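Components:
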Amino acid sequence: MKKDNNTDKITRKDAIKKMGKYAALTAVGTFVILNPLKAQSSSPPDPGGNPFD
Amino acid sequence: MNHSLGPTYEQLLGSHWVLWYKTSNRYSIVDENFKALLDAYLQSESINTFRSNLDIANADTIADRIQYYLEQCHTQDIDQTVSATLSFKPVIPSFSIHYECFGQRFQINFDSELVKKTIHPSIAHLEVNTTKKPNVVFDVYLDQDQLCLFKNKTLLRSAPKKDYHLIQGKFVMELLSLIHQKEESDWVGTFHGSTISDGTHALLLMGESGKGKSTLSALLVAHGFELVADDVSPLLSKDLHIYSNPSAISLKEGAFEVLNPLVRSFEEIPETLFNKSKGPLKYLVPNPLLKGSYSCKALIMVNYAKGKPTKLEPLSIKTPLETLIPESWLSPKPKHARQFLDWLAQLKIYELTYSDTASVVKEISTLFKTLPNAQD
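Structure:
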């Protein structure tokens, strides 16, 4: 099987995406985009603890 | 340019603009520089006009980034919380418990001890010994790997059992609507935070997990303040008040030592072990409230920091909103989004750093005294 060795090469668009919720426009301003929860929730459990398992 | 790409609502809060996009129910916080560029972009006849009007070397990059920003603001998330279609299975429940709160009676049937632990411990103090017919019957049970919540035999929500917090959240929404005689569509949102009152106003305590919100709430309750809500604080559209959530304060083991000398009979409160990652929990029952709802006047970002002196400092809206919005359910209705922005605009915002109990109680007492006296 051909192995794809280009995983470390990312496009400029990908690079912007990888900046996550912060995308800084240096010198021209900053923004952050926030998503409320889609459904009501209580405090989510910490990773690794599932009482049903 | 397509003006419809702009935010549906915008609100200046201190030095930041909070923008809301109807298509995605996303909020965006931008600084004044970015807002000016965004406005210029949206008002330009074309991208080329915008670029030429900017008349700077990196105009292309700026135009690209604003375009990218708007794409993100209008991207709708796939709702992964939609319940599977499951019909009610009439089974004999292992536990059938009656509760009463604010004159409303309800019954919950649980199919096992483990499933009971998802909901019962936080409302155990509402349990009543009665044969009266309940207003509502809930059924909570596992159907293969799905944890299901039914109301009068109609499915409210199912979720993979590892996501039991979604079932807890939906139950709390139902409980709040039942006891306050509201519909789910009456609420602007449910905030992940605790609300405390001095009998006149309320403060919303929020912060990341482990920063001491619930511990501080318990401390303040031990010193005579009222607990309006722990963990889930609901805001009603009609009067923009935070309504009481009768659930007990859930306390992690780390808080036991601090609270033991301050809360009467703390040692006698039984420990509940449900999720190993959270460790044993104690549920502290709040005192009955004088009122069912309060007007919230301040948002406090809580930060427990061992050894640090108590300090209450004004804070920009940006940091608390970055924690509050992703952890809260906010109604996607435009009317509610507008109300949420207006509600934020009247809040005072603080960061509270604390480790010492006596000084933090004093600081909060002083803050309550400085709040405006309006009763609305």
